[in-house]
Design goal:
heterodimer; A: mainly alpha; D-Maltodextrin-Binding Protein, domain 2; 2 domains; three-stranded antiparallel beta sheet; 12 strands; about 10% strand; B: about 325 residues; mainly alpha; MetI-like fold; two-stranded antiparallel ribbon; 16 helices
Amino acid sequence: MKKIVSVILAVMMALSLASVAGAENAAPPPQYNPLEYGMEPFASPVTIKIPVFDRARDDVPDVSSTYYTKWVNETFGKNLNVTVEFVPITRTDTMGAYNLLLASGDWPTVFMEYDWPKVSQWAADGALADIDVDAFIAAAPTWTEMAGGKAQFDMFQMQGEQKVLPALRPYWDTNYTYAIFYRKDWYEQAGIELFTTYEEYLAALQTFVELGYTNGKPILPKKAFSENFQVYAESEWPRNEEEWAMYSDVSVAPLPARGAYYLLKKQNLEYSLGLYSTEFELDSEGDGSATQAITDFINGEAYTYGNYLAADMPDLTAFYQNNPDAKLGVIYNNTVYDPWIDAWGARTVPQGRATNPAGMFVGFSSKASEDELKAAWLYMEWMAQPDVLFYMQNGVEGETYNLNADGLPEVVGGYQGDYWMGYGNNKDYWCIVVEVRTVGTIEQTIESIAPKGLPQDLTQELIDNYYILKAYANDGLLYVDPFFSVNIDSVSEYAGDLKAKFVEYATALVKCDPAEFDALYEQYVQEYKDAGYQAVMDERLEAYKNGLSTVLPDIAAGRAPYEPSDITKVVETKYTIGE
Amino acid sequence: MIAQRSLGRSLKRSFGTGSVPERAIAAAAKYWQLYAMLTLPLAFVILFNYCVYPNLRIAFMNYRPAKGWASDWVGMGTFAKVFKDKDFFRAFRNTLVFNVADVILQFPAPIILALMINELRAKAFKRVSQTILYLPHFLSSVIVASVAYTLFRPETGLVNVALMNAGFIAKGIPFLTEKWHWVITYLTINIWQQIGWGSIIYLAAMMGIDPTLYEAATVDGAGRFKRLRHVTLPGIRPTIVMLLIMRMGQLLGSGFERLNAFGNVNVREFQYQLSIYVYEKGLGPAGDFSRSAAVGLFQTLVGLVMVLLSDRAAKLLGEDGLV
């Protein structure tokens, strides 16, 4: 017995020695010393708390302690006498997570959100400091320049006060970082051409079910599960500007909007044709992250899969492992064109929601000391340095990325070694500077975020998708939600409850007998309005009428003529279907 | 009362007939180890149950996390808002109905089980079955719910698939996806999960029944059922009454974890209870902590009144009561 124990101990010792030796062989981490960028250390130690999204995934390291968070502290922190703490924020309940931090007095130094209503709520509550813009620009010139300068800052003031700063979102007008993939091989196997009309689309899906390619639930009405219920593609054209101001928002679903009616009616039709699982509502997480839909796709049962692009997309990797012979295609202009609406005959122009013209809205705690503010600004400035940003986005050469023939970094898919990166190539850390990882031109950028390590190369299709979207954007067909310069209090008050109600109503509407749809819709719209949505509509409309919001681009509002460019004419009727 | 009296008696036995403080000091000196062990739970109760009392004032404020205690006072404003809310009454109704159903269906179940276990004579079998019956209590309701969904989904649930394959039914039974079915499934699973654990206290009470009473009853010609009815049940009656009074205090109680885990959009009509209300309109993204506190305070006050009333009722019926 003793012998066995001593052998085991010896082996363990040898292994640990070997691992130490291995670590010594690795290249030392780069020293992007902030002092070399002209920053000065603080006289007394400063701690800053930076929020980082916790996406509850098991394929990424613990968000508050990764190789890179340690590196930030070793490099930026140590040299400036600053400790950088990363505070996990539940991605699906941002406001709840922040509220708990605020209520317990454990305020983060930096507040970050993509959604305007949320930052506007923080500002209204007094959580955000007034930003001394000149002092900020002096401390963080690189960051400012990247974000687009003071003119860009001015666009996001709240009643003359600068409460947040907009981080850069490159190519924001196209939403090209999100893609929906579909089962191209099903068309080939069945010998069907890709549809050009809605009838053909339905017929194709029904054929796939009949041929047994799927267990009978090829699509999932994901959109019905979340308050982020976008109906731009289903809306009338040109837009009624007042309705756009009342309805367009990611935090409350616009159930009474005509677009919502069409979209739900379409889903009701598809459900009645047996294209959805009869249990789809049980597979939702209530926040749009329908995990069952992902599982179904990985198992080869689902028709589409949508996600933000990254060089390493574990779901796609798993999909090809399970379905080695499968072939995927990219659905072009997915958020722009819903052929069903044309089948219904209401609209002739595809239109869509561009993403925010900014990445993160970055604000600062109104309780932060002068040193803490300064340290947070320097942290942003340091992170915006090209070398630092490159290291945070790409990691270690030969481990997490390799240089390709053009000398551009290519991420190694599925890497989980010592230099394991956070979600989306550390996105939730460098999002404080820039929203997407760009390298060289847009085509090279797409190439770098196109999923790698798969049997199929989808890069060209993703590039095509960008150009199609770009044509729409150039034509003025992609536009954004209104930005209100006042907080819409009723949104803060009712959003949580309306979300729960919307999910309940939308599910019932999708599952009801098509003959009863209209009556049920009317009933739910009334209940929804009574539950607070009327107040939301009224308050938004009033703010819009008082000139406290942005306005629609002239083309979308019908104030300027719409002239489709050649590319828009060509792609309008082809290859398209929303999720 | 009974506890106080017996304590008094035992103090007298041990420490003579001095004045109360003298006796208490004598008792403390003799049993200091026991009192030392009591300090920790006592500190826990003081810290987490009494020290938070001042913070209940957020029910009377329009509390915003960012403003903290500097938030505006609104007096009874939050209560007015809650009592005007239709959803509150839906949640209130559901909570009340579920708790009454629970008292009727679930409260007697552990008593019956305890009586049955008590009649078992094979010791080994008794112990094994008791352990098996306790086990579900230790499972988190999230786990129980996810197992329940795996078993009872209408289309792909194991039970429905088995029944359909056997030809008993043509279409899956919506155990958890139709509101009336859901109520029955929900309550039944709750009984299954808690029945074993609930029976422990009654079994303990049965141990305390004087065995000579059984002997006397047997001599008088009482059979098993007569002994059960005239000896065992009266023997555990004080325990039943005490637990019932305590249960009445939770008449508006509503556990979030369990409801949330078992909930789905099809059954919100019934699943929407006070804890869900508190979460969705209060603690959740809305961040309306004042509303949560107001509803919590209301639940507690109703609970207090119910305990006092049922205690009084028990005393009128000749029981000892709790207070």
